[in-house]
Amino acid sequence: MNERDSETLAGFMEELGFTYEEDKLEAQVVVLNTCSVRENADQHFFGVLGQLKHSHEENPGKFVAVCGCMMQQQHIIDAVKKKYPWVNLVFGTHNIQEFPKLFKNAVEEHKRIVDVWEGSDTIAEGLPAKRLYNFKAYVSIMQGCNNFCSYCIVPYTRGRERSRKPEEIIKEITCLAKNGCKEVMLLGQNVNSYNGGISFAQLLREVDKIEGIERIRFMSSHPKDLSDELIDCFKDCKHLCHCFHLPVQSGSNAVLEKMNRRYTREKYFERVEALKAVCPDIAITTDIIVGFPGETEEDFEDTLDLVRRVRYDSAFTFIYSIRKGTPAAEWDNQVPEEVKHERFNRLIDVIHDIQEEQMKEYQDKVLPVLIEGTSKTNANMLTGRTETLKTVDLPGDISLVGKIVPVKIVKAQTFSLYGEIVDA
Ligand code: 5AD
Ligand code: SF4
Which ligand is nearest to the CA of 193? Predict the structure, then answer.
């Protein structure tokens, strides 16, 4: 979601006549869009501000704006004002559309502006975007979250759920497709509760009809709201990728309850089975938090057991991070750091073992791969993605970037796949 917002900010900068500069120390204007989901994101932000201090002193004409989720928290705004008084502009997630106006005012009036809105009922439409790729795009369909999981800062930084109108979403995707976009990732904190007058499943069916769009993805889904109507889309939406990100967070019912997730492990298994029944080759991925307050060894073993039973294609694993302002931050049964790390490492080992086996199944398969560019590890190779988001490196001509080609997997390793293009 933040990356999508950054594309909007870059679009504004382009409209204002600026060009992109990779090096933040060299850039005349720096806009830092922040994430606050875990503490290391907060720390990273303050580290970057520390780096910028010097170049701001040396070049007083330099302009630094900070925005995003961190700025929606008063204690962060106070810290920025006190420790980094040279920051020129502070704004938040709810007034991103105001950025050009705020920027101009701060420059023209030579003064620091702090303007953070507490919330908003709408989503601004028609904003520019400088997108990273033209063959794949993020499309935000809703913002905010009403779930208030007890560990999570997002409902406080992004506000309540609001959905974009289906017409606006369809218009945006149709326009992207006309410009060569083949793949869209529909974004929302909880896409299952999309309500733009039609349901999320109905929206998917509409997007599926857009000419030129060959791959549709979405994230994230909340297991408690995963409807049969959505699962049925995997039966008949031709362009829906056979992968599903379904964050479980924990495999223990006691922990799930304290997390305020509002489902049980049994209900989660039932939803996974329902998905697999409709789409047997579906690749399921997840998010897991270890070391949530009060998590016992038995609770953690329930998580390991769930992971082994679901056999995730891959999983994003996080050590619980105290987020000021959330209920769980106040609890006194926090898990010691060393226990969190020990559990984290055990979880990773289990996930990797499963992943190794899953990856072997790709060996010798022929799969459609969307070519994205040159390989990060070998400039003579291309890199692309399977429908299940696996990276494949392969020899081929750069002119194939943006095309979907059939590829035979010739080597499958735990973290990487190598392939060769075959005749369609
Ligand atoms: N600590 C650790 N992980 C968190 N997440 C959200 N809040 C926290 C937190 N306080 C994880 C969840 C979520 C993902 C985006 O980030 O797993 O699904
Ligand atoms: Fe955070 Fe829970 Fe909302 Fe996801 S569903 S954004 S974890 S509060």
Answer: 2
* Cβ 168 under 6 angstroms from ligand 1: no
Model confidence, pTM: 0.96
**Phi and psi, residue 241, nearest 5°:** -65, 145
pLDDT in tens, 247-301: 999 999 999 999 999 999 999 999 999 999 999 999 999 999 999 999 999 999 9
* CA distance linking residue 229 with residue 208, whole number of Å: 15
- Best residue for ligand 1 mutational test, from 147, 221, 250, 318 (most atoms within 8 Å of Cβ): 318
Do β-strands 183-187 and 162-163 pair in parallel, antiparallel, or remain unpaired? unpaired
| Closest atom, ligand 1, to C-alpha of 326 | 10
Number of other residues whose CB lies within 10 A of the CB of residue 121? 8
Q: How far is the CA of 349 from the centre of ligand 2 (A)?
A: 26
Q: Cβ(247) to ligand 1 under 6 A?
A: yes
Length of the chain in residues, anyone? 424
User: Tell me: the pLDDT tens digits for 69-109?
Assistant: 999 999 999 999 999 999 999 999 999 999 999 999 999 99
The answer to whether the beta carbons of residues 215 and 386 sit under 8 Å apart is no
Q: Where are the alpha helices (DSSP H) in 237-336?
A: 253-258, 265-278, 297-310
| Å from CA of 38 to ligand 2 middle | 13
